[in-house]
């Protein structure tokens, strides 16, 4: 075991297996959590029949999805239709390579870590477009088009807000960004960037109030209308893994990653700190979903261009000015 | 200045919304786990009618006078009585109602001279056939005694 872990390739393979297992377990847990949160916000109970507190409910649901027939609609683009679920799921696994779960745990602490995450998370949109285009369905196509248009709305303020952190730390390496927050977390001195990032992250994961591409009440199920069985399951897995990833990035950038508050670790291991903060943010995203109604499309665009982008840009310029002065 | 005011007011309203939902999480749930838990029906609930049991005699006072049968606007009541020699009074033997046609108007309950009719608290009345709505109140009375 020792010599496997010391070898770079062995470390990657072991890491990949761990990431695959973790992403499944994480999605199972998050779906359960989502249903519990939704239930209790609406004064219901949520799943409770299968397993203690209904914890095994999502496993049973997953088994049902695996057992379902994979239907390809007539005159759908077969190749695009089949690769879309794969293409949506694989890129969300890549950020796990650079996510700094603890001091020694990033699989590969490359110096362009942040860039890797944001370049791969954008592929998500391409996959949604392919899936919507390939399924020969007007609702799926509309959902896909909306997803692309939405991408323009949130991607710019997202990167602008991240950039102000990068300006402060002068690095794209995840572990160095975390280490720069030794004495104080960045959301204390970059509250606007943190807020902008979090709003855009909600939009990036296509979750309410920005679930415009899915919009059950308007588009049936949006881009994944025609997907059945485990193909739909992969879209679902990707969505929840993506939620985890954006929250993990938020933890890294603004909440001090694996470090405790103000440098006190309180004897708790770094990975626990990291996961606790990440799941807290995941809970907040779920809380958003069951509080806010969906934005109309033009509302999202005007909110993005009139509020988010100017705020993020002003924040970036002020950050740059202050850094230059210091 | 309206621009910043809009952002602040709008943002504050979002925070208020979040406050509303987070309070709900800590409230007790209102879901009733129906087959496992039941609630007491309200006193004003109207199920099908039943023969009231009087505690002094432990039985009902129905003398099969037929007032309820005649007053029923939907004509869903059929009853038959015969003289009970021991009591020296007429007693009901069969009392049928077709609950599927009953409009729960309550005229039978109000008009009963012996005041022995009342609304039951029965609510699990789903059945497979329309004839399942026909209920023999005398048998229902005897079964509820057990």
Instruction: Please indicate the count of domains of chain B.
Output: 2
Coarse shape of chain B: elongated
User: Rg of chain A to the nearest angstrom?
Assistant: 20 Å
> Number of helical segments of chain A?
13
Quaternary structure: heterodimer
Return the average pLDDT of chain B rounded to an integer. Answer: 86
Unreliable stretches of chain B (pLDDT < 50, length at least 5) are none
**Number of spatially distinct domains of chain A:** 1
| Biggest beta-sheet profile of chain B | 3 strands, antiparallel
The averaged pLDDT of chain A comes out at: 84
CATH architectural name of the largest domain in chain B: 2-Layer Sandwich
- SSE-based structural type of chain A: mainly alpha
Low-confidence stretches of chain A: none
> What is the CATH domain class of the largest domain in chain B?
Alpha Beta
What structural class do helix, strand and pairing data of chain B support? alpha+beta
Which sequence of SSEs, written as H and E, runs from N to C of chain B?
HEHEEHEEH
Kindly, what is the distance between the CA atoms of the first and last residues of chain A, rounded to a whole number of angstroms? 48 Å
| Number of discrete helical segments of chain B | 4
Profile the largest sheet of chain A.
Answer: none
Beta-strand percent range of chain A? under 5%
Q: Which strand order spans the largest sheet of chain B, edge to edge or round the barrel?
A: 2-3-5
């Amino acid at each position: 075991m020792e010599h496997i872990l010391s070898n770079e390739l062995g470390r990657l393979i072991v890491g990949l297996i761990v990431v695959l297992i973790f992403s499944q377990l994480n999605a199972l847990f998050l779906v359960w959590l989502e249903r519990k949160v939704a239930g209790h916000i609406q004064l219901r109970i949520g799943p409770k029949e299968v397993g203690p507190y209904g914890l095994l409910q999502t496993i049973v649901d997953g088994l049902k999805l695996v057992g379902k027939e994979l239907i390809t609609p007539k005159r759908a683009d077969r190749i695009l239709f089949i690769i879309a679920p794969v293409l949506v799921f694989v890129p969300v696994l890549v950020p796990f390579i650079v996510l700094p779960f603890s001091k020694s745990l990033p699989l590969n602490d490359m110096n362009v870590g942040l860039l890797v995450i944001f370049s791969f998370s954008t592929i998500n949109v391409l996959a949604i477009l392919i899936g919507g285009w390939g399924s020969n369905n007007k609702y799926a196509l509309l959902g896909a088009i909306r997803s692309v248009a939405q991408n323009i709305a949130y991607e710019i303020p997202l990167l602008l807000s991240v950039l102000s952190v990068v300006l402060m730390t002068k690095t794209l390496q995840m572990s160095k960004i975390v280490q720069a927050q030794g004495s104080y977390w960045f959301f204390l001195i970059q509250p606007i960037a943190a807020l902008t990032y979090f709003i855009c992250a909600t939009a990036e994961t296509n979750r309410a109030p920005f679930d415009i591409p899915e919009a059950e009440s308007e588009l049936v199920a949006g881009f994944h209308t025609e997907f059945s069985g485990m193909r739909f399951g992969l879209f679902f897995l990707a969505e929840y893994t993506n939620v985890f990833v954006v929250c993990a990035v938020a933890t890294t950038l603004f909440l001090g990653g694996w470090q405790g508050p103000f440098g006190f670790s309180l004897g708790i291991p770094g990975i626990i700190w990291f996961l606790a903060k990440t799941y807290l943010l995941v809970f907040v995203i779920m809380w958003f979903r069951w509080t806010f109604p969906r934005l109309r499309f033009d509302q999202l665009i005007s909110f993005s261009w009139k509020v988010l982008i100017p705020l993020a840009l002003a924040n970036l310029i002020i950050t740059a000015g202050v850094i230059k002065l210091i | 200045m309206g621009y910043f005011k809009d952002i602040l007011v709008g943002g504050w309203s979002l925070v208020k919304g979040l406050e509303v939902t987070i309070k709900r999480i800590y409230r007790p749930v209102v879901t009733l786990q129906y087959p496992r838990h039941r609630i007491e029906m309200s006193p004003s609930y109207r199920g099908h009618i039943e023969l009231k049991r009087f505690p002094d005699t432990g039985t009902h006072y129905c003398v099969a006078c037929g007032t309820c049968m005649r007053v029923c606007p939907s004509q869903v009541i059929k009853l038959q009585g015969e003289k009970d020699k021991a009591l020296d009074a007429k007693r009901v033997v069969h009392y049928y109602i077709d609950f599927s046609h009953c409009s729960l108007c309550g005229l039978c309950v109000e008009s009963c001279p012996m005041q022995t009719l009342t609304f039951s608290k029965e609510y699990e009345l789903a059945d497979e056939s329309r004839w399942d709505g026909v209920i023999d109140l005398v048998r229902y009375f005897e079964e509820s005694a057990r």
